[in-house]
Amino acid sequence: METATKTENIERMKYTTEKNISGAEIMVRSLIQEGVDNMFGYIGGAIMPVYDALYDYQDELKHFMSRHEQGAMHSAQAYARISKKVGVCFTTSGPGATNVITGLADAYLDSTPLVVITGQVGSGLLGTDAFQETNIVGVSMPVTKWNYQITRADEIAEIMAKAFYIARSGRPGPVLIDITKNAQILKADYHYKKCEGIRSYQPMPKLNKTEIEAAAALINSAKKPLLLAGQGILLSGAEDELLEFVEKTQVPVACTLLGLSAFPTNHPLYVGMLGMHGNYAPNMNTNECDVLIAVGMRFDDRVTGDTSKYARQAKIIHIDIDRSEHNKNIVVDVPVLADAKDALKALNKVVSGEYRTAWMKSFKDYYQIEFDKVIKKQAYAKSDQINMAEVIRILSEQTKGEAVLCTDVGQHQMTSARYYGFKRPNTQITSGGLGTMGFGLPAAIGAQVGDRNATVVSVSGDGGFQMTLQELAVIKQYHLPVKAILLNNSFLGMVRQWQDLFFDQRFSNTQLENPDFVKIVEGYGIQAKRVSSRDDLETAIQEMLDSPEAYFLEVVVETESNVLPMIAPGAAVSDMRLE
Amino acid sequence: MKEYTITIFSENDIGLLNEVTIVFSRRKINIESLTVSESEVKGVSRYTIVAFVADNRIENVVRQLEKIIGVFKALYFEADQIVHQEVALFKIANSTKLNGNLENLVRTRNAKILSVNPDFLVIEKVGYKADNQELFNELEQYGVLQFARSGRVAVSCQKREFTSYLKELTN
């Protein structure tokens, strides 16, 4: 009987037309039509009919039940970023829906494609302050690419097609679909047709020949060019085109935080990370270059520092798919409205350049200064306590830069970005724009679901880890071999660093009296270990990586170490301090 | 800060007005006036928004408006690039004080008497905001019971019309 139902289901899910089925069933079938196979979420009253429909499709649509909706969101985000699919998340109405706001805001700032489905009270109760009613469409409007409230079963298929199309096309982003309970229960005729366009929405700009020519002319005459690679490279899958461009033009490449892993860090033309805690050379040379080629990045204030002192000497080319990003933060000379892949493909036909010995030497010289003053002291520390940087360096060496790193927010995040040698695209998953503490652990869950064979390592601090540690239960329940590193300095390290540098060392509310993390993790049934001596560090990391199952490693690190170098808030990129 | 008139063409969908105003409110820009109704194309709404915006920010605001899904086009204009008007309605108590003075005033001010009741009169004037304000000041001596003014409506002087943008978008 059970097998018959299953075969029947597999057969039925291929249909794009069927008469008189429930809204919940239409919802589930729509997901299958969009190629969804893994989802995250949290059940509750107003979404129960959809979860009931999911019960018949457990093999086709795997649902991972989080322990808090925020966790489900971050898992869905990481899943989207690693699988290049649209991340899907379900929650109930009211508090279930309001708990997705942080994830939506995070995905919106970091251009992550999501379709988030929230249950809603019956349409007759809308506006009456019914139990668990929240105007989530109103609440989520500023943090979604698009949102819509479905109140009838017969609109589900069309709206879901539109939701997936909007989430994944152009500059990707999160879409929220609110669906009333009656729309899930009532029946309608089902007909699924993929969305192929919306007349008021032009996601893929046509390449403008004049813009490409202007950009190429600047690139070909540049003496001291610098390319800034953003997440747009990864989102458009332009890693190969970037590599070809760089090898043709011999232009040095720096990555933004979210652009990391778009370009191999061991390439001779890779010069490091940009921004507040990036590398010394690319920041200093931003104010030395003659042509700045920004690809799929948005001149975030953490990258630019003081905009009035940012690359004033340079001609700036800005390739971006989102027209509203041009001249938003930095006024540019040649805006190119295009998908990064299309633009680089077109440029690759017309650009060339020779290796610029003196220019490249200036990057090497700056690197040497950074190595002597910072890297040597931190990544090869000799102090009593372990430094965060050496943990990441060893992790990078032991995984050969091939692991997927899911980081939280703070000092450990910047340290991971600085010291992990990313070699494969889409292997750094972090909360960039929003800076959401608690992102790392649930993100690792989503990443592991998205790539079952990858070594997925979450790196957190003791502050952020406590914001979403309930998701350990998900790791256990679904047997996910996630490796979780906790860099414990008993402080909110990054805030402590700012207090140290800019608030006269008045350490207000940054020292934490922490629980016994090993006991907590063991309580969830996950193997856990604490290490505090340098002598044990390499073995401990190796043991963690060798484990076929989930593993938690707490590393007790220096309590009062600062992440350097640093561009102080409001300072120019070339005023980066080394100590 | 300069006064700009922003014209937006959008789908006539629930919630779009909210999306539009969020772009202004998040940058702490106050909307001086706002008019929305159907444009020359059926189902397409035309917004006319008046706001004071910094010269170097107006382009960013308009691009962010255009980014909203449901918005076809957003344009901005300075005063000399548009022809604009607003409508004002004045409700005045019908009393012996009027004595024919009103008719004279209405004629010289290019206004008209829209409705006459035993208790009140309604005068309508189409003009610039300042002209309508001036008439209000003059009518005050007769006792203005209500004064309602529309937001600005404006058409641009530019050669390219919305229908040509729409054609480009739907091709």
Structure description:
The complex is a heterodimer of chains A (579) and B (171). Chain A is of the alpha/beta class and 579 residues long. Chain A has three domains: 2-191, Rossmann fold; 209-362, 3-Layer(aba) Sandwich (Rossmann fold); 380-569, Rossmann fold. Chain A is 40% helix and 17% strand. In chain A, strands 3-2-4-5-7-6 form a six-stranded parallel sheet. Chain A has a six-stranded parallel sheet with strand order 11-10-9-12-13-14, with helices on both faces. In chain A, strands 16-15-17-18-20-19 form a six-stranded parallel sheet, sandwiched between helices. In chain A, α24 links the parallel β19 (527-531) and β20 (551-556). Chain A is globular and about 70 Å long. The longest helix of chain B has 11 residues, at 129-139. Chain B is of the alpha+beta class and 171 residues long. Chain B has helices at residues 16-25, 58-67, 101-108, 129-139, 162-170; strands at 2-11, 31-38, 44-53, 71-77, 82-93, 112-116, 120-127, 144-149, 153-156. In chain B, strands 5, 6, 7, 8 and 9 form a five-stranded antiparallel sheet that branches. In chain B, β6 (112-116) and β7 form a beta hairpin. Chain B is elongated. Chain B is built from five helices and nine strands. Chain B folds into two domains: 2-77, Alpha-Beta Plaits (2-Layer Sandwich), CATH 3.30.70.260; 83-149, Alpha-Beta Plaits (2-Layer Sandwich), CATH 3.30.70.1150. Helices cover 28% and strands 41% of the residues of chain B. Classes of the chains: A alpha/beta (579), B alpha+beta (171). Chains A and B meet through loops of A and α1, α2 and α5 of B.
